[in-house]
Amino acid sequence: MVGKSRVNAKVVTSKAIGHDSDAFRELIALLYASSGRLQSMRRALAQHLGVEASEMATLLALEHLRRKGDVSVKAIAKHLHIMAANITSTLSRLESLGWIRKQPHPKDVRRLCITLTPKALAALATLHVKLDKVNEAWFGSMKSEELATILAFLTRIERRFPAALHLASSDE
After folding, report:
1. Which pLDDT belongs to residue 3?
2. Mind listing the pLDDT tens digit for each residue in 7-60?
3. Residue 104 domain boundaries
4. Which of 52, 58, 139, 164 is the most buried (most CB within 10 A)?
5. Residue 85 in domain
6. Count of structural domains, the chain
7. 112-116 vs 100-104, strand pairing mode
């Protein structure tokens, strides 16, 4: 990269910092705590819509993805980092509750057209007012560089999860 200095960052592994490292233990504790707090926040926000947390996450994903033009079951699952089968059952519940409409795709019989109903659009608009306040209170002091670092870190550990789970589950 011309004109930009490169930062030589050392890749730190659990072996390199030691499995007894206070920093590594604190990282794991904070990941667990943050995960639990995110789930609690999602449940609290979902109550405002009168839906389950997974249903709210799916509605928000649908709203986000429709702006990009790809509202398929596969795209929703990829966006939420979950299996498509979970999305299919959640979409069926949301359809029965009047939050979405599912119709055959006009060009691909294997796909569905999934749209938010006026009820969903109105409820999500109201939810966004609350979300903006919550996000400002929780993440307002975060710098864009910090966000980029955290996003890169979480993306990396998400990508490495299957191999780690295999090791945890095996007799190796």
Report:
1. 43
2. 455 555 656 666 668 888 898 999 999 999 999 999 999 999 999 999 999 999
3. 55-123
4. 58
5. yes
6. 1
7. antiparallel
Query: Per residue in 51-107, pLDDT tens?
Result: 999 999 999 999 999 988 868 888 999 999 999 988 999 999 999 999 999 988 778
Tokens 């569905």 belong to: 112
Q: Which residues of 27-61 are buried (b: 16+ CB within 10 A; e: fewer)?
A: eeeeeeeeeeeeeeebeebbeebebbbbbbbbbbb
DSSP H helices in 50-169: 53-68, 73-80, 84-96, 118-139, 144-169
CB 115 within 8 A of CB 108: no
Asked if residue 36 is part of any domain, the answer here is no
DSSP state letter for 21: -
Q: State the CB neighbour count (10 A cutoff) for residue 90.
A: 24
Bridge partners, 101 (sequence order): 115
Q: What is the CATH number of the domain that holds 92?
A: 1.10.10.10
Structural domain contains residue 164: no
Q: Is residue 81 part of a domain?
A: yes
